[in-house]
Amino acid sequence: VQLQASGGGLVQPGGYLRLSCVASGFTWDYYTIGWFRQAPGKEREFVALVSWTSSSTYYADSVKGRFAITRDNSENKVYLQLNSLTPEDTAVYYCAQASSPQTIAIGVSQYNYWGQGTLVTVSS
Q: pLDDT at residue 4 above 90?
């Protein structure tokens, strides 16, 4: 199983980015895919998830209304659109596959395969 996140970079406050996650090595459309982030000196935290059929999405309160998660099962990709970015969004962003198929999962411990992370820096 491999997941690869990309799309991070340096952006000014109020700006936007689109992160991508491409996966291989498992039955993609059976699993929830989540995005998490980890800021320096802080624990990894949940950001958003999309269920295996895209019928359900969930967001952390801190990003609700600003971020949007989508998935393309035909290309094994998940996207995270980041809008209205603030310095507090600065972190390494990770995509991950839920451990159990057809399960909604929010906790870090409920995901067993992780991408390498992509750094998002919001600064003027």
A: yes
